[in-house]
Amino acid sequence: MNAPSRELSDEQWSRIGDPNVSPKLKRLAGTIGFMGVLLGVGAIAGLLFTLGGGFHWREITLTSPPSPVAASLSFFAIPFGVVAFWSVKQIPGRGGTRVLGVAALLLGLAGPPIYAYQSFQIHIQLQTGEINKVQALTRAAMAFQQKQGRFPKDLLELVQSAGLGPDAVKTAFGSLSTLKEIPADLKQLEDQSDFVYLAGNIDKAIPAQYQAAVIIVRDKHVLLESQSAAVGFADGNTRWVSLEEATKLYDADTDARAKMGAATRPTPETMTH
Questions:
Q1: DSSP code, position 272
Q2: For the whole model, what pTM was predicted?
Q3: If you count DSSP H runs as helices and E runs as strands, how many of each does the chain have, helices first?
Q4: Do residues 138 and 236 lie in contact, with contact meaning Cβ atoms separated by under 8 Å?
Q5: Domain coordinates of the chain in residue numbers?
Q6: DSSP type of residue 196
Q7: Contact yes or no for 32/87 (Cβ under 8 A)
Q8: Which residues are CB-neighbours of 2 under 8 A, at least 6 positions away?
């Protein structure tokens, strides 16, 4: 009998020659690897494509967010791939099973970055939506002032004069508000609103030199991840402001109101979580 072309250890020879363990192990490892590949392919397909209205590329929007189910499948593919690969690592002639294991592992590892990128897209869309909501309220207040010579006296007059619905006072990040319509009671509206209106006690036009400093509308709550909130100014600018920056902006707002002879803000100067 010719010597084998590849030197094998005693353990390898014993595993190959064991009729009870080796065939079962090979079949099981192959099955696990194949299942891992299916999970990985399913995860990638679920993240990148959608079956709604036919099989097509998934466009990430607020109404079509990333699939958490597909992301979960990718996590399951990883251990399947690892088990399949290591189960036959010491068994010669099982290259196909090792390939399946590696493929399952790589497909599983590809899922989380795709899901993270899609989640980032959603976050950007939510931030844009929040900016738009604060900007809409700010512009409505400015438009009211241009017509009436004063700002709306409170949030209720603001939304009623602009014909805004309950969605206008709900954050884009998922509101806890239960408003179905704009209530007639100011306190109820302010309690349910996710935004704070700050120009109610300004009874005159804001001079151009102070418009960049005077705050008209802001988020009631701070976005936890970034510790920031959307703020709308009298010059029409709306942007995200960090908690650290907010203190300086509040001071600038107070200074501008004092110089133009307007009352200070009627609400607390701190934003809540």
A1: B
A2: 0.76
A3: 7, 6
A4: yes
A5: 10-121, 149-259
A6: E
A7: yes
A8: none
